[in-house]
Amino acid sequence: MGELYLYSGLAIFIYMVALYLVAQKIKDNSIVDIGWGMGFVIIAVISFLVAGEFNLRQWVVLLLVGLWGIRLAVHLYIRSIGRGEDFRYANFRKAWGEKAAVIAFFRVFMLQGAFMLLLAYPIVRVNAANENNEMTFLLLGTLLWIVGFIFQVVGDAQLESFKKNKKHKEEVLDTGLWKYSRHPNYFGEAAMWWGIFVIVLPVELGWTSVFSALFINFLLLKVSGVPFLEKRYKDNKAYQEYKKRTNRFIPWIPKSNGRTEAHAAVSERRQHPIQK
Questions:
Q1: What SS3 class is residue 107?
Q2: By the 8 A CB rule, do 213 and 148 touch?
Q3: Beta bridge partners of 172
Q4: What is the mean pLDDT for each group of 10 consecutive residues in the chain (276 residues)?
Q5: Which stretch of DSSP H or E encloses residue 241?
Q6: What are the b/e assignments for 237-257, b being 16+ CB within 10 Å?
Q7: Which of 192, 191, 188, 185 has its CA nearest to residue 271?
Q8: Which bin fits 256, alpha (ψ -120 to 50), beta or left (φ > 0)?
Q9: Can you give the pTM of this predicted structure?
Q10: Residues in contact with 220: Cβ distance below 8 Å, sequence separation at least 6, in sequence order
């Protein structure tokens, strides 16, 4: 386990330094968001290869993490084209002044690299464990992951479609998956991490992987995911009506079938869990 984390940590350090150098060259620290998902792919690949065992459970985790990470990176890259540095990072740059480059290295790139290594614990855990032929949790966890992936992909697609066709900024997206949850893409992300936990649960010390699932839920619900967006729309009357009838996170039947005249986006830019 220690050896896998050592190599993974070294790889992530090099990766984040490279991202940082590119960001300084193009003056856009928000590319760290695009690099978020790929960091987990790197950890999955490195720990998989260093372990050298290659059992079915390890292959499944590698495949699922790879699919999630690459999809997220491509999605965020496409969304970033032509938009320049995200306003949050631009504000940080102004606030940090002449020391912006140094502070960004530690508070943006190194900090997010550290979060990657913490959240990737179940990935490293499964690669460090001996072969386990248990199939029930493997199948259940994969099914849960697939449900989460569908929610994230479909939720993002519906949001993108809405943004291209909305008529004014006060509109609220309350159709499709957004009819049942105010944040279906974030719910999907959480469900995927819980799926990974269920897959890893039967291996040696697999139960300790619950930390990652709980941590990602905490980040999404209490730190910079849901709270950021809820605060952003606090003065939007249509959103406040939408909020009254729609579950915040876990999808459920709306409290009312009525709809406001405005249809609206819960989010203008998809964020990964530790965005500031």
A1: helix
A2: no
A3: 264
A4: 93 97 94 95 96 91 97 93 85 90 95 95 93 91 98 94 82 90 94 97 94 92 80 82 88 70 42 45
A5: helix 237-245
A6: ebbebbbebbbebebeebeee
A7: 185
A8: beta
A9: 0.86
A10: 183, 186, 189, 190, 226, 249, 273
The ranges assigned to domains in the chain are: 1-131, 134-276
Nearest to 264 by CA among 186, 167, 137: 167
User: What letter does residue 275 receive in the DSSP assignment?
Assistant: -
Alpha-carbon Rg for the chain, nearest whole angstrom, is: 19
DSSP output for 141-169: HHHHHHHHHHHHHHHHHHHHHHHHH-SST
130 burial level (CB within 10 Å; 0-12, 13-18, 19+): exposed
**Size (the chain), residues:** 276
